[in-house]
Recover the amino acids of this structure.
C-alpha cells in the first residue's frame, strides 16, 4: 500500500468535531506515513481568538496555511497525512501549492449534520475550540469542487468504516 501512496499528501478536512484527527492518525498508521495535526501549527494569537469564541479570518489563517503547505512540500515523495479544516477552496489551493511543485494532495472531507457535530465538540474535554464557533465554520465551509481530488464521507459511519473507505480509494 505504501508504494501507491508515495508522494501523496492526504488532507483530512472538515469543521470542528468531524473527526479529522482520529481518522487522520489512523490513516497515517495504516499507510505507513507521518501524521501532522494541523491544530498544532496555529499561532498563540489564533488559539487565543478561538478560545475566546472569535472566528478566525482569512488573514488569521494565512500564516497557518503557509506553514502547513511547507510541511506537505517537505514530505515530498514520502507522502504524509494532515488534519486541517481546509474550509474554503482558497485554503485548499494554498495547501495544494497552486502553481508550485510538491506532493499530490487528496482531500477527505468528513461531513455531518450540525447536531452531531455540536454534540461531538461539546464532548471534547480541554480543547480550545468552543462549540460556539461551529456555526461560523459551517458558514465558511465550501464543499469540495468536482475538480478537486478527494472524497466526502458521512461521519455517521463508524471510524473503521470511514478508514476502509479511504483505504479503498488509496489502493485504487
Amino acid at each position: 500500500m505504501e508504494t501507491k501512496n508515495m508522494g501523496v499528501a492526504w488532507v483530512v478536512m472538515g469543521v470542528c468535531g468531524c473527526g479529522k484527527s482520529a481518522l487522520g492518525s489512523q490513516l497515517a498508521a495504516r499507510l505507513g506515513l507521518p501524521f501532522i495535526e494541523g491544530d498544532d501549527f496555529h499561532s498563540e494569537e489564533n488559539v487565543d481568538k478561538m478560545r475566546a469564541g472569535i472566528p478566525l479570518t482569512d488573514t488569521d489563517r494565512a500564516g497557518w496555511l503557509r506553514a502547513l503547505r511547507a510541511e506537505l512540500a517537505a514530505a515530498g515523495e514520502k507522502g504524509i497525512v494532515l488534519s486541517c479544516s481546509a474550509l474554503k477552496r482558497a485554503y485548499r489551493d494554498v495547501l495544494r501549492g497552486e502553481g508550485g511543485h510538491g506532493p499530490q494532495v487528496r482531500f477527505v472531507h468528513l461531513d455531518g449534520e450540525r447536531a452531531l457535530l455540536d454534540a461531538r465538540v461539546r464532548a471534547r474535554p480541554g480543547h480550545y475550540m468552543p462549540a460556539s464557533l461551529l456555526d461560523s465554520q459551517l458558514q465558511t465551509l465550501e464543499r469540495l469542487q468536482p475538480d478537486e481530488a478527494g472524497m466526502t464521507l458521512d461521519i455517521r459511519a463508524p471510524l473503521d468504516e470511514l478508514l476502509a473507505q479511504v483505504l479503498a480509494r488509496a489502493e485504487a
